[in-house]
Amino acid sequence: MIGQMGAMGDTIGLPATTVADLDAAFEAIRPGLARLCASLVGAAEADDVVQDVYMVARKRIGQLTDPRALEPWLRRIAVNRCYDHHRRAKRLVERLPLLVRGPVTASRDTGLGELVERLPERQRTVIVLHYAYGYALNEIAELLDLTHVNVRTIIARARHRLLAEWQEDVR
Question: Whole-model pTM above 0.85?
Answer without folding.
Answer: no
